Structures are given as C-alpha cells and as structure tokens.
Amino acid sequence: MLGNIGLILGLALLIALALRGVNILLAVLVSILVIGLTNGMALQEVFLQHFPFGPSGAFSFAGNFLLLFLCGALFGRVMAASRAAQSVALAITHWLGAKRALLIAMLVCALLTYGGVVVFVVIFTMYPIGVTLMREANIPRRLYAAAIALGAGTFTMTALPGTPSIHNVIGARSLGTDLFAGGWYGVLAGLVMAVVGMWYLERQWRRAEGTGEGYEATAKDEQMRALAEQQEGNQPSWQLAILPMVFVLAIIVVPRLLQMSGLSSAWIQFAATQPVLWASFALLVGAASCFVLFAPVRKQFVKAAGEGVDDAILPLINTAAVIGFGGVVIQTAGFHAFAAWLLEMPIPPLLSVFLSANLISGITASASGGLQIFMSALAPAYLEAGIAPELLHRIANLAAGGLDSLPHSGAVIALLTLMGLTHKEAYRDIFVVTVAIPMLAALVAVFVALAVT
Predict the structure, then answer these.
(1) 3-state secondary structure of 421
(2) Distances from the Cα of 136 to the Cαs of 107, 129, 175, in angstroms?
(3) Domain locations in the chain?
(4) Least confident of 52-66, 343-357, 430-444
C-alpha cells in the first residue's frame, strides 16, 4: 500500500515541480527519490542502475537515440540559418493570407516536422513569423500557441507514416517494422487530428472576437517582429527552400516504395532494418543539401552545425530524464500489478494497447518516453496476444500521443515559456488539441482496426 501511495506521490510531485518551473531533471531526481524510499528500493539501485542504465533508463535511451536527436537538431539549425524554414513559412503566409493565421501555423509546423525538423526548432522558427500574423489578424496569443502545438506535436509526430520522428523510429526499432507501418490507420487518425483540431481553434477564435479578446504585444514581440521583417526579403525562394525537406522524405520513402515493388538489395534491407541510422542519414543529407543550395549558410555552416548539436542536448537530456523516471517506476511492484491489470482487462487487445500506452505516456508526460517504456515492458505480451507488429506500431504510436502533453511535458513548458504564457492562460486550448483530440483520433483508428481485422 505504501509503495502505491509513493508512486502516486512521486508522479504528483513531478507534475507540481514542473508546473512551478523547476528544471525537469531536478524534478525527476527528487520524484524518483520519493518512489524509491516508499517502495523499499535500494537507493544505489534507483540512482545508479534503474534510472541511468535499466532497460528504460535515461542513458540507455540517450545512447540509442543520440544520433537521431543530433542529426534532427543539426538539420533544423541549418534550415534556420539558411532561412529556408522561414521562406517556406512566409510563402504559405503569402498564399493563404494573415486571416488564416491559425491554419498557416498548423500547416507550416506540420510541414517542417514531417520534413524532419525537430519540434523545439519549429517552435523557435514559428514565433518571429507569428508575431506579425497575430498582430495583423488580432489573434489571441494562446490560440496561436495551440496552433503551433497542433501542427508540430500531434499528427506528424505519431500518425502520418514515413516521418523520421523519434516516436515513429522507436516503434520501428522495437518491433522490427518500418516507418510506414500501419500507414492507412495513421492517415485516418491524422486527418481526424488536423480537421477537428483546426475546427476547435477556429471556433475559439470566433468566440474570442465576440468577447473582444485579441492580440496583446510584449516587448519580446517587438524584437521578433523586427527579426521577421529583416528576414522577409533575405531568404531563398520557397521552391528552393523546400528541397532539403523533399530530399529527407525521399530518402525515407524510396526504399519503402522499392520494397513494395518487389525489389530487394542490401541497402534497401538496411533502410528497413536500421530506422535510426537511416533516418539520421536522411537528415544529414538534408543538412548537406542546405550547404550546397544556399550560399549564405556556407560561411557559417560549421557554426550552425555546432549550434544544432547544442540544440539537441537539452531536449535529449530532458526526454531521457523523464524516461529514466519511468524506468524506475516500472521496477516497482505497483507498476507490475498495474501492467498485469491492463493486460488482463476483459477488452480487445487493441483497446488495451490504447489504454496502456496512454497511461504510461501520461505518467512520463512524454510520448517518446512512454512509448519506449511501453515497447520494452508491454509490447511482447501484445504480440503474443496476436496483434500484428505493423498494427501495434501505429496504434501504440497514436495512443502515446494522447496523455503525453500533460502540464509537466517539456515541450509544453518550452512553448508556453517562449510565447510568454502561463498554464492558466493557455493550457486549456493546448490540452484540447494535443490530448483530447489525439485520444479521439486514436480511438477512431482502434475501432476501425477492430472492424476490419
């Protein structure tokens, strides 16, 4: 009983500390101390074994995915330094107009993240452009933040097939599938997330206009607006700017298409069996193409690449720390009882996958962290229950993208901090588009899969 109370207290403490702005690594260390003491675990095992080096340990995760984080952040930084990312964003803004600012934010973020730019870089890329959009269209800051979250942290993260996102790679690496596994279910769920999410945001915008709520500038906004205006006439054409993302996606897609056509070779097999290395290679090619295509970035390529490496470290450490928290949790008797209860529930296995992946991601407040723990702790049992690896890959990915965006999520905190918002001001809208609607989309995919299998 004390151990179960400790688990609840540890999770509550992690959320509370994150909400108060405490560094997530420090919050994790304090929380696992509470869990270890209340569960009678040896502290040397908690801090020197389960947290860092266990099957779902922080360093175990960091070691497996360091290359992907580095390559993703490097590509994103070079895209930003070349102003290619801004060019793509401004082109879409020109086509659709500032009055469609929420749709623009979602589409640009989706395009960038599906093309391989990591979420944290997308957030920083979109903010300078967003200052102009929010001002011209009189959009409340909270809704623009939610639009960024919808585009960067939902359907391109877990649903759409082929994306080199860390979540898609975790599923492929753990189950021996590829990045396109369960693709049609992902497309269906992605459409639900995008359409329903945008409907909600547009509805909230109309309500805000009716109550007189609009854009309120800050000192930082004025700095970002000036930056966007400086960049507007000094970037490559959108046709050229989009090529690096096309290269990244093509490298990932071509082996799959060749494999579907019946062709086979050593490199096609390598692409299918080494998703971390292949996705990392695709991102490196994208970065190299920026060097070739955009002359201004050549003079500062080494500097931009170094900054990209720096960009990768904090997200990797934060993600790994939260995974390490889960790595301690799964060593407790309470978690094993919880997992057994999930597996023994008298419901279809796919619905059990939805519940378990969601709850574990909620505990860790990280889709990648929860998915990694799910794959190591529960996926083998679901495979034994007869779920096809490709279907398990996609449904688990979709489910992990539900409760992952709770208040102590690192990405949520980063977005709110950059936008100058508090949880009280903006979290409700972020919750709807990144938690409630993705859970609905995942359920739609589950019931469709149950109907056709």
Answers:
(1) coil
(2) 18, 11, 48
(3) 2-452
(4) 52-66
